[in-house]
Amino acid sequence: MAEVAAKNLDTMRRRVASVANHLAPVRPSANSGAVELSTASSSMNNSYHRIHGEVPSHPVVWRTARDEDSGKDFVDIIYEKAVGEGIAKITINRPERRNAFRPQTVKEMIRAFDDARDDSSIGVIILTGKGSKAFCSGGDQALRKADGYVDYDNFGRLNVLDLQVQIRRLPKPVIAMVNCSLTLYSASISCLLDNIVVMFFQVAGYAVGGGHVLHMVCDLTIAADNAIFGQTGPKVGSFDAGYGSSIMSRLVGPKKAREMWFMARFYAAAEAEKMGLVNTVVPLENLEQETIKWCREMLKNSPTALRVLKSALNAVDDGHTGLQQLAGDATLIFYGTEEGNEGKTAFIERRRPNFSKFARRP
Ligand SMILES: CC(C)(COP(=O)(O)OP(=O)(O)OC[C@H]1O[C@@H](n2cnc3c(N)ncnc32)[C@H](O)[C@@H]1OP(=O)(O)O)[C@@H](O)C(=O)NCCC(=O)NCCSC(=O)c1cc(O)c2ccccc2c1O
């Protein structure tokens, strides 16, 4: 009898240890060398860190933002801006559908991203999903018809493709903040020698299907430690042969991209980080705080440098469109120079421009 009880206890202990081990918080930025730098004080003791310093950690205050151009209220999304800081946040608000998008959702996201692009006080944009169960589960399959997704009219739409292009070309960093749930259940198990309380966490937090493509198109992804990533297309009769394939191949490499698409498996956040799909994985309770930290850190940097870097990082892959974006940035910068201004001023003053005073640099 005592032998059986001891064996049961042993089994119980192993289970608790296994659950506890599973729940051990992931060290922030497990793969990123940046962590070592930001935590090792000796590495911080240099002029670079003394001058640029730490970012503030006070809580962010959100205010609901409107689409100033259309004046229409948002239904499928929540659009917010941080008070006194250059951060906008777009939240897909269809939690009962795991934040699956319909054409209306996408139209609203496009309007919000447009507003954030146009608002010169905004320097970085967060994309996330409402609630605790999903970032986004892709297109709303209940609305899928023969020619795309249909909501308020009879035309099928694949307008998420326009949104992907918009995010890719938007000259400000866009961060996907991939949320997840953490629901605690507890059960008390009594045995002869001990009374053990076992805690179960139900975890989820899906960035799947077209929702997975959305996070990949964003410039950076910060994930909660129990988020789940994957493509479902081949299981539901769909595929994204555009950015969903080409950007993924760049991110994880051609073999792994084939695995993700052909097998349509799901991957835990830690695995996604190893694969290069996400920038960092943090405990759920730190997710927004960490994302805001990244935003604040970028906001301290030169907006023009970030703008040009984004277009430069995309340029080769994006062909003519990438060149167009990078070239537009070059023109933007040139217009601000004395040399560029000389041409315009001469035209206005109806005189011959004098470019001879400008250096012909090596
Ligand atoms: C995301 C899940 C893994 C979550 O599973 P879980 O068990 O937690 O929850 P439920 O399955 O019970 O879902 C709860 C509730 O939500 C509804 N729901 C979830 N996802 C969707 C969805 N995508 N569309 C519609 N409804 C959804 C679900 O039916 C439940 O409703 P109840 O009324 O029953 O409570 C799991 O839900 C899941 O696997 N979801 C589907 C993921 C998926 O296959 N997405 C579509 C991929 S295709 C796509 O997104 C896509 C879109 C485009 O616009 C494209 C455009 C151009 C090219 C390609 C495109 C493309 O591939």
Describe this protein's structure.
Residues 15-33, 35-40 and 183-204 have low confidence and may be disordered. The protein has 362 residues and is of the alpha/beta class. It has helices at 2-23, 33-39, 41-44, 47-52, 103-118, 160-169, 210-217, 233-236, 243-252, 254-263, 269-275, 287-299, 303-335, 338-348, and strands at residues 62-64, 77-82, 87-92, 124-129, 134-136, 144-145, 148-149, 174-178, 181-190, 195-204, 206-208, 220-224, 228-230, 266-268, 280-282. It starts with a helix and ends in a 14-residue tail after the last helix. The strands form four sheets. The protein has a seven-stranded mixed sheet, with helices on both faces. It is built from 14 helices and 15 strands. Bound molecules: ligand LTTK3YTO.
In spatial order, strands of the major sheet run 1-2-3-4-8-12-15
Number of helices: 14
Strand residue content: 15-25%
Cα separation of the termini: 90 Å
Largest sheet: 7 strands, mixed
Mean pLDDT: 87
Q: Low-confidence parts, pLDDT < 50 over ≥5 residues? A: 15-33, 35-40, 183-204
Q: Rounded to an integer, what's the Rg over CA atoms? A: 25 Å
Bound molecules: ligand LTTK3YTO
* E-strand count: 15
Work out the helicity level: 40-55%
3D shape = globular
The structural class is: alpha/beta
- H-E order: HHHHEEEHEEEEHEEEEHEEHHHEHEHHH
Keywords: Lyase
Pfam families: ECH_1
Protein name: Naphthoate synthase
Catalytic activity: 2-succinylbenzoyl-CoA + H(+) = 1,4-dihydroxy-2-naphthoyl-CoA + H2O
Summarize the structure.
The chain has 362 residues and is of the alpha/beta class.
